[in-house]
Amino acid sequence: MDIQQKLKILADSAKYDVSCSSSGSNRKNTQGGIGNATLSGICHSWSDDGRCISLLKILYTNECVYDCVYCVNRVTNDIPRASFTPQEVADLTINFYKRNYIEGLFLSSAINKNPDYTMEGLSEVVRILREEYRFNGYIHLKGIPGADEALISKAGKYVDRMSVNIELPSSEGLKLLAPQKKKESILKPMGLINQKIIQSKEEKKQFKGANLFVPAGQSTQLIVGATQDHDYKILTLTEGLYNRYKLKRVYYSAYVPVMNHPKLPQVINPPTVREHRLYQADWLLRFYGFSAGELLDETQPNFDNDFDPKTDWALRNIHLFPIEINRAEYEMLLRVPGIGVRSARRIIAARRVSTISYDGLKNIGVVMKRAQHFITCNGKYHGEVGMKVGLIRQSLLPKPKKTNVPSWQENQLSFLTDLVPYNHNLINSIVLGEL
Fold first, then answer.
1. What are the structural domains of the chain?
2. What is the pLDDT of residues 219-262, one digit of tens each?
3. Which residues, including other chains, have CB under 8 Å from residue 224's CB and lie 6 or more apart?
């Protein structure tokens, strides 16, 4: 099989992995080297289903020994199989980078033969790029659960970010859909990576020339909708991962139905609204001071599709409102629907000089359509329906729109699809490194 066919197969197989943020790394170029990764991250492109496809995003191999029911690459699925060699992945990355098609590499893999064999190949790819090609661009690598700690440690010295995908939010879900995987084998490398990150930061304080281990941090991915797990279970797990392993990000991927199976839910379209609500709640955990137990509980285990999590929380805790905008603490300002981190800081700064009026809040950037129901300005309440939850809820309901929404598509933008016109001879030359 030639390398172009491998690229087509393995780029397509990688489209279901959404855990590919590039922010947080500041790897500078060196004399005689090529590329660099900046703190602002890599410029991104987006497919019509919202997935990030900015990097050269491929699998090392889609030959897998596992039989995870939800996965398109499972061993029992009859699909074209391919595997790169470490040298082939390194050459592809450099050839595409030199032509400004990409600014980095996102490399994941199925489990070929065993975790150690696969992780050894991935480690060799990043070693070649860093040591032989002196490539200083961004690299995001998947850590393989169950692989030897020495292999994961070796790879972490070369990459900017690593991720170990949990995929399913409960041990029961893993037992049902991925019985060959164990929660402990997934969490163990997470703990190792976190420990190495902390250790390298301490070494950096003592020795200026010490290299950071996975400087952009680690992340993981959770599949939403493949099991019966509620949003409360997912969000509680997310909170635990942030607190225990200091993850940079948790990514949520709406379950894409790739096959019919009695253990899988019958889904026509991926639950993208639910995915969006989890991302909003994730933001509240990380930047707004909320806890998972405040946003959801056993009595209300799922988010409301009609309202963002903060608005839903405010409506369920209407007894805490309205708050006076000129006296409320910063932490409480963050809990008002329509007030974000930036606008809350502006309010704190502005009221040191003078009192803030209703019109002044508009100028600050507060979304008054939502905020007016939960605040007073100089003692005056500007909500149109009073402090009545039912009426507030009705006024905030999104208005139905009559638009032609394109049907959801599984395909992500690729170098080898027809979404963008391209010259076949040019692509062949790039892949083969002939230009």
1. 3-302 (3.20.20.70), 309-396 (no CATH)
2. 999 999 999 999 999 999 999 999 999 999 999 999 988 888 89
3. 234, 252, 253, 254, 255, 271, 274, 275, 278
